[in-house]
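Moderator note: this is an archived Q&A kept for reference. The question asked for a predicted structure of one protein chain; the sequence and the answer are reproduced below.
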Amino acid sequence: MAAGQVQGADRRARSREKLFTLVETRTETLTLYASLAAHQPFTAEPDVADSVQQFCQALVDYAATAHFQLYRYIADNKERRKAVVEVAEKVYPQIARTTDAFLDFNDRYDVAHFQERVDGLAEDLSRLGELLADRIQWEDQVIQAFGGFRP
C-alpha cells in the first residue's frame, strides 16, 4: 500500500472514531434526557436534582465532543473530502447555536440554582428537546457526508 493510501486510511479511521464518539455521547445524552423527562412533574427533590446534574454533564460532554473532536478535526483541515467539509461548513453555525443553548441550560440548572428554577424545568427541557432534534438532523447530514456511520 502506498504512503498516501495509508495516510488516507489512517484519516478515515480517525474520522470513524470521532463519529463513533459523537454518536456514543449523543446516545448517552438522549437516554439521560428521557430519564429526566420521566420525572415530571418536576420537584426540587434530590433524585430530580441528581438527574438534572447527570443530564447536564452528559449534555456538556456531548457538545464538547462534537466541537473539539469532530468539527475541530474538520476545521484543522484534517478531513480532505470536499463533500464532508462543505456539509460541515453549512451546518456548523446552527450546531454552534445549539451548543450555546446547551451551555445556557447547564448554567441555568447548575446545583446552586436548581431549586429556584425547578418550576421552569419542564418548559426549558421541552425547548431543549426541540434543539436536540434539530442538532441531530444537522449532525446526521455530516455523518452521511462521511459515508454514514458504521462502528
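Archived answer notes: Helices lie at 3-37, 46-75, 82-108, 114-117, 121-145.
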